[in-house]
Design a protein that fits this description.
Elements: E1 3-7, E2 11-13, E3 18-25, E4 34-39, E5 46-51, E6 58-60, E7 68-73, E8 78-83, E9 92-99, E10 115-118, E11 122-127
Parallel strand pairs: 2-11
Antiparallel strand pairs: 1-3, 3-8, 4-5, 4-9, 5-6, 7-8, 9-10, 9-11
């Protein structure tokens, strides 16, 4: 049974930095692409950043390039999203996700449809 647990979301001021975390269990962590999605009120869920199973290869949506960094630590079964220079428009519930298929079988790391398992989400609120 796949379980994903996010943590670290909180209220911060614009310009601040924050790192959110996700721990995974239930399958060999190092075999699956991982991603962070977010959903703001009234908006669709969007893929923010993703990282390939090998940790070589990442994707970022345009609005966070240069500000966010995704990383993963195999020994901790964890994936992180470091967020710098946060903006009010980054306010959302952030979800950790894991690909349904191992290795590269689900397609490019940037393909949102491959992510089949989800955490409960962690709220990030950026005040202006």
């Amino acid at each position: 049974q796949v379980q994903l647990q996010e943590s670290g979301g909180t209220l911060v001021q614009a310009g601040a930095s924050l790192t959110i975390s996700c721990t995974a269990s239930g399958r060999p962590f190092s075999s699956y692409n991982m991603a962070w999605f977010r959903q703001a009120p009234g908006k669709d869920r969007e893929l923010v950043a993703s990282i390939r199973w090998s940790a070589i290869g990442t994707y970022y949506t345009e609005s966070v390039k240069g500000r966010f960094t995704i990383s993963r630590v195999k020994d901790k079964n964890a994936v992180y999203l470091q967020m710098n220079n946060l903006k009010p428009e980054d306010t959302a519930v952030y979800y950790c996700a894991q690909a349904g298929e191992p290795l590269d079988r689900g397609g490019l790391v940037s393909s949102p449809r491959q992510y089949a398992y989800w955490g409960q989400g962690t709220q990030v609120t950026v005040s202006s």
